[in-house]
Amino acid sequence: MRSSACVGAKWYIHAPPYPPPACACALRGTHQPAGRLPTCLVHRAHASPVRKCISHPKSLATFCPTPCCCTHPASDSCVQQANCAMQQAAAPWQSVQANRFSSSIASFYRNISAQPPSGCTKPIKWKVCGKDWSKRREAALSSTLGLLWPPRCLASRGKSAPHAARAVYLDLGSRNPEPEARNISGTRSSLEVFATRYPDAWAFHVVAFEADPVWAPLYRSRKAIQRRYNFSSLDFHNVLVGVADSTSSFSTNSGADAGIVRKRERSRTVTREVPSLDFALWLSTHVKPQDFVVVKMDIESMEFELLPHLIRRGVAPLIDELFVECHCVESFNHRCGRKYAECIDLHRRSYEAGIWVHDWD
Fold it and tell me: 326 with 347: CB under 8 angstroms?
């Protein structure tokens, strides 16, 4: 018999202060229809998400398209199973349609800033520039898909499950894997940032790509790196991520200016030839649409070639979430010659192709 007062309800909300992806109403023998709030709420810690949930009841129909029901209100595992079952059934990232996010959770999206980073052109005002990039990074981390669909739901299914989906993190331009305390190169480890800041990073199978052979020796002990960051697995490829299986000229400078060298620059830049791979082909053979794929892309202006290549090849929706450092002349006078307006256009095209894309540094 349905209770009119929803006595004893517990709403477990994963990521305050955003609208909950899976509101699981834990009721003893009571069935709570999707999209309907109980008249009483008992919430453990955060009041603000509950207020958000109450003030936006229609959001429940989006984030909870199936009925929420649990017969053991005291059981966290029961609620977790209910949450995961709903997310597996309805998460838009499992679709390969270009409008998979814009038609469902567009209000959660953070567009790239309309203005280029402040204080980052020469002479660089480091305090101003660093503060601006920090704000952009925090904006990206506050609107991740991992906050809406906890990756732990994928890890709980196990490798033996039929058609098991995986949480996959692809670090393009991984550089130094050492944590900040042991990193003497002056470059921040993107693996460490992901491990410490992304929700449920431990659930991810990680693949790192780095073109510069200088960093390759640091990845010899991949098991140690995996244990250090508590990833599900870790693989490494010392290749340049590009648009074809070939070789490319790469700067021998392993500092901030390292990267692919264009033909017009080769006469004044010391280079080495490095292997490159067709990332569109690699994606299509290594991940599935049902996988939850997060990508960090810091490839020294190659993003202007790679992302359109992925879109043309029709594999862009295999990437669910993208953190991309867009290189432009307004940011550290980058030699690529691209304007910040082109970065905005690249973000727009990527989002329209079905990628949940963030500005990154």
Answer: yes
